[in-house]
Amino acid sequence: MIYIQQLFENKAIIASVIAWAVAQIIKIILDLISNGSINWNLIFSSGGMPSSHSAFVCALAVMTGLNQGFDSAIFAVTFAFAAVVMYDAAGVRRAAGSHAVIINKLMDNFNIKLDEKLKEFIGHTPIQVGAGAILGIVIAIIYYNFI
């Protein structure tokens, strides 16, 4: 039971989850502004502005640096992890989403029916990744200094 308590007291995890949640809420608000209605499905969706993946991993890295030192090995690990996640979000996952768009159009043109279309909205633009990174950094700094 002590492990669960420690998990819920881990400042790096808490800051990361807050950063993720704020990013997802921002996506809902931006969608509300552009479409005029609330889409609650966005709370657990990937893709869009800002990148919640980037917000999560940057908050994790910054909180680790603030708590353990920016010269620590564990900060280096979280920094490398964040870099890989953000590169993947703007590279591989974005390309996969672009491919899904084309495949879905081909399936429609040839009247091929699948149970569901491929998910097209899975990656991020570099700006979305950058916005998520900044959000995660800011939330980690605020959490560290004020909470």
Describe this structure in words.
- With 147 residues, this protein is mainly alpha-helical.
- It has one domain.
- It contains six helices and no strands.
Characteristic terms for this protein:
mainly alpha, 147 residues, elongated
List the helices and strands and how they pair.
Blueprint: H1 2-9, H2 11-35, H3 52-68, H4 73-90, H5 92-109, H6 126-146
Helix pairs in contact: 2-3, 2-6, 3-4, 3-6, 4-5
Please sum up the structure shown.
This protein has 147 residues and is mainly α.
Proportion of strand residues: under 5%
Order of helices and strands: HHHHHH
Number of domains: 1
* Helicity range: over 70%
Mean pLDDT: 87
Please give the largest β-sheet.
none
Oligomer: single chain
What is the CA-based Rg, rounded? 18 Å
- What is the structural class? mainly alpha
Overall strand count: 0
Instruction: Tally the helices.
Output: 6
Kindly, what is the distance between the CA atoms of the first and last residues, rounded to a whole number of angstroms? 24 Å
Low-confidence stretches: none
Shape designation = elongated
